[in-house]
């Protein structure tokens, strides 16, 4: 990988980065801890769900023939011989003229073919009249359909059914399915651990006094939050100063992780020491990407511990540039390591409500506010678009994407907007 400052497209930069990123190994996790991870095994059921025919309602298990012709004017009275709560098995069978009071989820008694729910019986009337304490009979006030309110064994899942495929992202619904199968753990592809390092003598750690000419280190925290949002585990290394010893020491702290992300030190005007250290630690290329903001970018492979190859993504130092570059390049890298399909960010088409000029033939990612009204989407920028205005990212819920060959976007034009607040999931 040769160091250079060639201008490349967003797509070319992403292709290069993903070519050096590989799927991580498999781990066994408790099912609740695996939320958002990707299945590394096919899941086949060893049981029926439900295991037995059971009641879908609180009511009375009966034989339909016993209640034919029932109505409010002419109730059919049945003898009640037992009550079955959920989790219990009826001791009696249902025969003609017999009813068993049954709760939702309780197995269907032998002989029953229908469950009459409480609302079409005279149970409430018996309670009001004080005739419910020792219930020995019940009046049925309506003829119902045979088989109503019964959930059949295997209705949801049948033993040996193929339930979840390897590669499936585990959402709350999948966690519930695994639990219903009795699975306490599951095999998934591991989450990547991402080292995050800010560089620069001007940076101050949070909680320390802010001296003249200094700024607080926000990049580590915004990027770490992005890593968490997209499924990674951040390891925040702090600040590396603009000297060889500090930078080498901090870089070495990150070589036991799955990727190192740095901010600053990647543009033409930055101290050569940053580039020198990164180049000595491995193979690093410095690019200019045809995008605005976030033109300067570095990527390569660092030599980690025990000959481990650690991908390195060098983001620009300006906070907005750093976050936008991460959305375009860091997010896809994390997804590939986790086994997720690397889908483009969710986009909408929206009508522009202000004006943007493209002055230098780069792809613009303008911070913007998208609203939905009158059946469509409308978008306006957050205001000044300087790459140091971090509050513009806080105000934005999307990025207006203006292609390189589009010189301007006017009010009323339809544009594509990457949605920042829509976290896409592979279904």
How is this structure best summarized?
The protein has 427 residues and is α/β, with parallel strands linked by helices. It has 8 helices and 28 strands.
Structure write-up:
This protein is of the alpha/beta class and 427 residues long. It has 8 helices and 28 strands. The chain has helices at 10-19, 123-128, 172-180, 219-229, 244-253, 272-281, 319-338, 391-395, and strands at residues 7-8, 26-30, 43-44, 54-55, 59-62, 76-84, 98-102, 114-117, 137-140, 150-151, 162-164, 185-189, 193-199, 203-204, 215-216, 233-240, 259-263, 282-289, 291-292, 296-303, 309-315, 347-352, 356-357, 363-373, 376-381, 398-402, 408-409, 414-419. It has a 7-stranded mixed β-sheet with strand order 1-18-20-21-17-13-16, with helices on both faces. Helix 1 (10-19) packs across helix 7 (319-338), helix 4 packs parallel to helix 7 and helix 5 crosses helix 6 (272-281). The mean pLDDT is 93.
Based on DSSP secondary structure assignment, what is the total number of beta strands?
28
Morphology: elongated
Quote the beta fraction: 25-35%
* Biggest sheet, spatial arrangement of strands: 1-18-20-21-17-13-16
Class by SSE composition: alpha/beta
Task: Count helical runs.
Answer: 8
Termini Cα gap: 36 Å
- What oligomeric arrangement do these chains adopt? single chain
Please summarize the sheet with the most strands.
7 strands, mixed
DSSP helix fraction: 10-25%
| Unreliable runs | none
Backbone CA Rg: 32 Å
Q: State mean pLDDT (0 to 100 scale).
A: 93
């Amino acid at each position: 990988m040769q160091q250079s400052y060639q201008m490349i497209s967003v797509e070319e930069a992403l292709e290069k980065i993903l070519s050096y990123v590989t799927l991580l190994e498999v781990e066994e996790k408790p099912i609740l801890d695996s939320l958002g991870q990707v299945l590394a095994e096919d899941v086949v059921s060893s049981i029926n769900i439900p295991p037995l025919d059971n009641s879908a309602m609180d009511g009375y298990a009966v034989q339909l023939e016993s209640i034919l012709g029932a109505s409010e004017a002419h109730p059919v009275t049945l003898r009640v011989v037992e009550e079955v709560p959920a989790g219990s098995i009826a001791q009696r069978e249902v025969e003609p003229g017999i009813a068993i009071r049954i709760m939702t989820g309780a197995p269907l008694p032998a002989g029953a073919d229908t469950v009459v729910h409480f609302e079409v019986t005279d149970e409430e009337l018996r309670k009001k009249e004080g005739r419910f304490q020792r219930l020995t009979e019940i009046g049925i006030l309506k003829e119902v359909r045979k088989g109503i309110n019964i959930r059949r064994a295997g209705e949801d899942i049948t033993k040996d059914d193929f339930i979840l495929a390897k590669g499936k992202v585990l959402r709350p619904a999948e966690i519930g399915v695994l639990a219903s199968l009795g699975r306490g753990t599951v095999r998934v592809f591991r989450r990547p651990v991402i080292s995050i390092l800010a560089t620069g003598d001007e940076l101050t750690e949070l909680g320390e006094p802010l001296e003249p000419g200094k700024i607080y280190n926000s990049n580590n925290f915004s990027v770490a939050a992005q890593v968490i949002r997209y499924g990674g585990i951040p390891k925040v290394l702090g600040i590396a100063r603009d000297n060889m010893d500090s930078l080498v020491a901090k870089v070495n702290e990150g070589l036991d992780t799955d990727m190192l992300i740095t901010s600053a030190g990647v543009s033409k005007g930055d101290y050569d020491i940053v580039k020198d250290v990164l180049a000595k630690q491995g193979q690093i290329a410095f690019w200019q990407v045809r995008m605005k903001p976030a033109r300067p970018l570095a990527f390569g492979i660092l030599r980690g511990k025990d000959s481990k190859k650690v991908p390195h993504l060098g983001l620009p130092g300006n906070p907005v540039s750093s976050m936008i570059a991460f959305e375009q390049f860091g997010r896809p890298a994390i997804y590939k390591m986790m086994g997720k399909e690397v889908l483009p960010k969710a986009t909408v088409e929206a009508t522009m409500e202000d004006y943007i000029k493209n002055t230098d033939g780069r792809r613009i990612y303008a911070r913007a506010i998208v609203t939905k009204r009158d059946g469509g989407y409308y978008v306006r920028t957050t205001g000044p678009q300087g790459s140091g205005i971090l509050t513009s990212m806080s105000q934005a819920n999307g990025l207006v994407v203006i292609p390189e060959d589009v010189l301007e976007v006017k009010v009323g034009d339809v544009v594509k907007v990457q949605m920042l607040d829509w976290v896409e999931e592979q279904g």
